[in-house]
Design brief:
The chain is of the alpha+beta class. The chain is built from 15 helices and 17 strands. Strand 9 and strand 10 form a beta hairpin.
């Protein structure tokens, strides 16, 4: 069905019913309860925008398939759950309230022997089946498409942690999204199949040429943790046989072919401050022109290194953001390029950094550096330009968060076990001299306390990721 019809309420509803039916069948195969199926399909619907001066953007870390089976704590969704809804079954046949489970895991954080005891205690058939239902890629892929439809088919999607690019691109193509620039051709081939790496200038040039010549708007994070963990869990799967099963997770950009057209695709490497060190991260750029108005927008997608401590922030700034060849330098050049033609510049990213986080010097942060070079964020209502939270909301709600997860003792990332990650780390920055924020299409996720947030841990059936999507309407300012 053409996207013009999907954008209409009736057409969108028809497409949603098609994907909902396929997803329900899949969830039922996985043993999900009828209530779980029904509740997870109650998505807030928003009509598509058709105004020439509007641009709807979705920023979403979709959770790589290779990282999804990583011990995330979650509420029961399967029909055959051998305990009350608020309780976790144990291997000795008893059940423990979830609040107590969180306390036990947090108390054991960093203690390997205690974590092994808890892993044995809470590893049950029901917990395993519940995790499979929540992290099954086919079910999650269908839900991602449904979320895109429910969000009014945004003009541009910027996704991180995509490690099943070809399948996701095909699914989104069914509702009119494109993911290959029009001047390129050829089937998609995972970069790791051709042994690309970032180890030298020559290898980086070859990788960049590979991405640009193929024209698929996907930038894999070569040597990713996602692929390593996936191969580790599937010992029988070799690197060679995995070529068609998974990618290194990376940044992907999709767009509505009836609303915008791609005019440029490029890859930028984030050179660390020490020029002797090879870059480990890169940024994907795709430029677009709005078909009806001719307006142009330069879109950048990025996923910075993980770590929520001040020392991690300092390393991100040094190696990826503030270095001479870092993100700030790339964005500054883009603004200069865009200024002559009144084009907009957008950065969508999982920064792994929230506005309040500071490096040890207490003066520098990713938020401050990026905000300074681009000028505005979709979170400016809640944080000032220094990243300080604005006055407390009279309703008692805290500032928005874009991730809300808690890894249990089954996680393959020991340093993250027992940590309740609930911060605003997904961002859309823009140039306020060209664009203005009209509204958040999806209301920001806000809670009154971290305890309350624990009752809505992600991933869930409704939200197939450990991150919440950010969907906004931007508009061009009049000249």
């Amino acid at each position: 069905m053409p996207l013009q019809e999907v954008a209409e309420d009736d057409g969108c509803a028809t497409m949603m019913r098609k994907f909902e039916a396929a997803r329900r069948d899949r969830l039922q195969e996985l043993g999900v309860s009828e209530r779980g199926c029904t509740e997870s399909m109650k998505l807030p619907l928003d009509p598509a925008t058709s105004e020439d001066n509007h641009l709807r953007i979705m920023q979403f870390n979709v959770l790589a398939d290779g990282l999804s089976d990583d011990g995330f704590m979650a509420m029961p969704v399967i029909d055959d759950w051998p305990a009350d809804p608020g309780f976790m079954p144990t291997s000795n046949g008893t059940a423990v309230p979830f609040d107590q489970v969180f306390e036990e895991i947090a108390a054991a954080k960093g203690d390997e022997s205690k974590l092994l005891e808890l892993k044995s205690k809470f590893t049950t058939r029901a917990a395993t089946e519940n995790a499979k239902a929540l992290t099954d890629w086919r079910g999650r892929e269908l839900q991602i498409v449904l979320m895109v439809l429910a969000s009014g088919v945004p003009d541009i999607l910027v996704f991180e942690e995509v490690d099943k690019f070809q399948g996701l691109a095909a699914a989104l193509a069914q509702i009119g999204y494109r993911s290959q620039v029009p001047w390129a051709s050829g089937e998609y081939v995972p970069a790791h199949v051709e042994k690309h790496s970032l180890e030298s200038d020559e290898r980086r040039t070859a990788f960049r040429d590979f991405c640009r010549s193929r024209g698929h708007t996907f930038l894999p994070n070569l040597g990713s943790t996602a692929k390593k963990l996936a191969l580790k869990r599937q010992a029988q799967v070799t690197e060679k046989s995995a070529a068609d099963l998974l990618d290194d997770d990376g940044v992907a950009i999709f767009w509505r072919g009836d609303r915008v057209e791609a005019t440029l695709m490029d890859v930028h490497f984030l050179q660390p401050q020490s020029e002797a060190a090879p870059p480990k991260k890169a940024v994907l750029q795709v430029n677009f022109r709005v078909i009806t108005s001719g307006r142009e927008v330069l879109v950048f997608g990025a996923h910075l290194s993980s770590g929520g401590k001040p020392e991690d922030e300092a390393k991100r700034l040094k190696d990826e953001v503030d270095s001479p060849g870092g993100l700030v330098s790339i964005l500054r050049s883009a603004r200069n390029e865009a200024a002559s033609k009144e084009a907009a510049v957008l950065l969508c990213m999982d920064a792994n950094s929230h506005p309040q986080l500071r490096s040890p010097d207490e003066a520098s942060s990713v938020w401050r550096s990026i905000h300074k070079v681009l000028g505005a964020s979709v979170w400016d209502e809640f944080f000032d330009e220094d990243g300080t939270e604005r006055p407390v909301d009279p309703s008692g709600l805290q500032a928005p968060i874009t991730t809300n997860k808690f890894r249990g003792p089954a996680s393959d990332q020991p340093r993250k076990i027992g940590e309740h990650a609930h911060e605003c780390i997904d961002h859309i920055f823009f140039d306020p001299s060209v664009l203005t924020l009209r509204r958040h299409v999806l209301p920001p996720e806000r809670f009154r306390s971290s305890t309350e947030a624990l009752q809505d841990l992600q991933p869930s059936l409704k939200n197939p990721s450990d991150h919440y999507p950010v969907v906004v309407d931007l508009a061009w300012r009049e000249s």
